Each structure stands twice: as C-alpha cells, then as structure tokens.
Amino acid sequence: MTPPDSPDHGSPDSAGGTFVHADDLTLTSRGTPVDATAMAAHQRLWGFWSITRWLLMRMRAYRWTIVGTAIGNPVLYLVAMGLGLGALVSANGQRVDGVPYIVFVAPALLISTIVMSAGEEFTYPVMEGFKWSHLYDGPVATPVSPAQIALGHHVAVMIRFLAQSAVFWLIMVAFGAAPSHWSVLTIPIALLTASSFGAPLQAYSASIETEKGQFAFVQRFVVMPMSLFAGTYYPLGVMPLWLQWIGWISPIWHGTQLARTASFGLHEPMWLTGVHVLFLVTTAAAGLWMSFRLYRRRLSR
Question: Residues 1-13: pLDDT tens digits?
C-alpha cells in the first residue's frame, strides 16, 4: 500500500486538503473521488472544454443530418456549379483566373457553405441556451464562467466545421478541383472565415431577448447577399464598383481569396493577402470579445 505522504497521493495544503495531480483528474471520469477544491480550480481554468464536450454530445442527436449535409452539399454544389455551369464556360474555351471553372469555384463553395452553416449554429442554438431550453443556466451555476460558456459553444461549432471542411476538401480532391498540395490549407482558412462571421453573429444572438424574425432577416439579407456578391461564382472585379463594397466587408470574400490562393495559386499582392488575414482575425477576435461581455451580462443577472 502506498504511504499517504507518497507523491502518488499528493502533498497536504495549508487548509488540510490535498493537491491533486493531473492523473487524479483523469480518474474523476472513471468514478474515482477527487478533492472538490481541485476540481473547481480545474473547471475555472478548463471549463470551456467541458462545455465543448457537452455540446458535441448534443450534436449526436442530429448527427446524420450533419453527415448528410457534409457529404451532400459539396457533391451537389460541385456537380451543379463546377461540372454543370463549368461545362458551359469551358465549351466556349473560357477560363477564370487562368484555371477551369470548377477549380475556380470549388474553394469559394467551401467557404460559402461553412459560413452558411455558421449562420445556423450561432443563431437559434444560442437563443436556446439563454431562453427556450435554458441550457446555459446549469453550467453557469458551477465554477464555469459565462465567458467560458461562450468560448465552449464557439469551439464546439468550430470542431464540427473542422470535420465538415475536411470532408468538403476531400471531395474537391476527388473532383480534381484542388490541384495544389497547399489546398489542404483551405480547411483552416474555412474555420477562420466561419469564426470571423460566426463570432459577431454569436454576440448578436446573445444580445436578443426575444426572437421576432431577426434570424430570418440575417439569413436573407446578410448571409445570402454575402454569398452572391462576394466573388463566390465570379471574380469580384467584374461587378460594378458600387456593388463591390459588399465583398470588401464580407468575410466570405476575404476567406475565398485566401482559399483560392492556397488551392490553385491565385495571384494577389502580398499586402492584400495580409489584409485578408488581418480582417478575418480582427473580426473573429472582436466578435468573441463581444460574446464574452454579453454572455457575462446576461448570465450574471
């Protein structure tokens, strides 16, 4: 039997408790009792991950919808837009930015699809957490902070999008629409773009006390125009100058340009690539910061 003062049992603290090692925290999930103070301290530091795991387990309830969407969307989009419309473009001997149309449009479809999914995951599920099902009320009664709840929700959605983006990229490769080995970078670019749009949307959803059609408005008058007027199906430069501003302020355009650079080597000046990255990182960070403040305000009442 191991002596009580052995390193395996930790050393007593000034309050008479016990410092718990990381291995002991692992044993908690196996039913082994662990000091409550240490568990609370662990949750204050890593509580967001508990929220992430909980939300990922809730997603299992509609996992087949997620799987069907992850596979069906890229196949349908690439067949319809890449092969269907692309065949008409190629029939006239036309190329877009020096590549076949399917190569041009595929990374943009990846970005657009992930952003549209963000428009779903950061609206009604956030409202459900605050109001309809009060899913946030339980975690906030524990050492988990409101900011950690917001971050945990965001990370859970990003993990879903990681898998969704990876499937889309693999289908792009199967269609021959990702000629460069750097095209794998479209996966993290899609995540950054989704966060750039999703984090401010999460903050907006957290600010709404009663849903009276605001989310439908976002889908129709924000998400759809961004997809149509952000250079998804054609270069932004072919649009009238008075409409191009929609692309300039759209995460979809910035993400699409980065994805095309990675996927087939779209030629852009380095400073513009830097602008794309800066825009996406700044909007994602600002959105998360606003989410933390709004979650704290609503869950601390």
Answer: 444 444 444 444 4
